[in-house]
Every structure is written in structure tokens, then in C-alpha cells.
Model the fold of this input.
Amino acid sequence: MVRSLAAVLLSVIAAPLAAQLAPSARLDAGAVRIGAAAANLPPAGADAWGGFSALTNAANGSAHLAVQQTCSATAVDVQWQFGCQAFAQTNGTAGASVRYEFASPVAVHGLLSITWLVQASGTGAAQLAIDVGDDGIVDATDSGVLPVVFGPGALVVRVTASANATAGSFHAGWSTWHYSGAVQGALVLGLAPDAPAVQMTSAACGALSPGLAVLPTFAGGVQFRGACAPPDDIAVLVLGMVGAALPLGLPPGCALAVRPDVTAWQLPDAQRGVAWELAVPPAVRPLALHAQLLGLHVAPMSIATSSALRVVL
Done:
């Protein structure tokens, strides 16, 4: 009965579906300024998910900020680029505070990864505050990884980052001292579900063999993502409940390492990629299955195989 139920689940795989996560972003505050020269930013409260950028230049400095986000079935990627330079008798800033919401109809256990990179000189400096839950408690001020659990419902993350620099001079006795500053930085925020347990059960076969990766999805399942070799005309995903060693009967002499319960095929896209998604309801977990990707070359006929993987969900 278990094997029959699993076979039914496997039969619903198709081309990649839209992400089940519903993301949004709201710009609550921001400034990009050097001296009195300020760049135009969206107003407070504006929808920021589509991204925004601002740049201002003056004779004594410059400042810039660019924010963009993407969301797929398997990951959220948030990227900020910012900088500020002050040369003479001025001060500048570039920064913003954005409230992100990631709504999910199902429970999600995942990781929030933070990469914070800053290069500063002189008076240049940058600050970061990550507030998970937007409850006024700062959870991170530097690079790191935070475990998160949310859904059904939304995960709220407030991101506040800024860069500042000043330039000027002061007199000490008979001497005049000049100071200036510059700072460049980047923030990369990633959100992804916890990965399933994956074990390789058989090595790839063929001089130009396809690759197969298994990624968790926000919908509570997995995405089988393949990378096809140049000779591959057709990619075939084979899923089954048990392993096997079935000769394929074509050059270069590879074997199928999965007893096939379900097969699905796609034509590789322009980047030689293919992908299928499988949702696995909590009621049938834990579920163990085997997966392998075949790369079929039509003329002359040949089949290369990826590594075979055992996946536990």
C-alpha cells in the first residue's frame, strides 16, 4: 500500500511550478545623499519587491544604493549594493530600512543566510541590523546563518543597512589636518527550506554525463534539477522506490540504477537545464525514493547517466 501511494505521488511531477512562497517588501525609510545633493527614492511605505536604486554625485563626493530581490520555488535571494565617498567638507549616507514578508500556506523549516561584506577607509563605516519578526530585537549585525520556522503564515524580516562617510579639516596649532572617508558594501540575504537527506548510490556514467541535484521547495517537496551535457537531446528523469542495476543496452554501456516506477522527460533549455517538482504531503512522510537522470543522444543513439541518488523526505 505504501509503495502504491508513493507511486501515485511520483506520477504528478511536471515542469517547474510557480513558487508557493508569496514574498513582499515595503520600504519604510531610506536616504542617499552627499551634502545637500540627495537622490530620489520611492516614498516611505512603497512596494519595494521590484527593487529600486539611487545615485547622487557631487564635486566633493558620491553615494549610491541598489536593492533587488528574486524568489523561486526553492530559494529567496535579496541583494543590496551600497557605497558612500566624502572628499572635502561634506558628509554622506546611503541606506534604507525594508520590511520583508514571506508568506507560506504550509509549515517551512529553513535557514536565513546573511552575507555582509564591507570595505571602508578613513571615516567610512557601515552598519547592519537584521530583525527577524520585526519585534525590535536585532538578531544579526554581521554574516551568519539563522534557523527559521514559519507557516502557515508569514515570516517577517526587517533589514536596516547604511553606509556613512564624512570629510573636513581641523586646525591644531600651526597645522591643518584634513580627513575623508569611503565605504563600499554588499548584503546578500538568502532564505531556503531545509535540505532533504540525499545519498549517492551509484556513480555517473559516460564521458559527458548529466548532473542531478535535489533541492527542497517551499511547497514542502523537492525539485529535481538537471544539468545536461551538450550531446543530450532529451533528458529523462527516472524515479523509483528501490535501486537496481539494469543495463540500458546502448553506448557507452551505462546501467539504470533505479527500478523505474515513474519516468518523465523534457527537452533541455538554452542553458542545458531541466527541472521537475514533486510535492510530498506530510501524511506520507517519511518517504524514501531513488532518482537518476538519463541524457539521451538521438543520432547516433547513446545514453549517459547521472549519479543515482537516494532521497529521504
The chain has a mean pLDDT of 91. The CA atoms of residues 10 and 106 lie 20 Å apart.
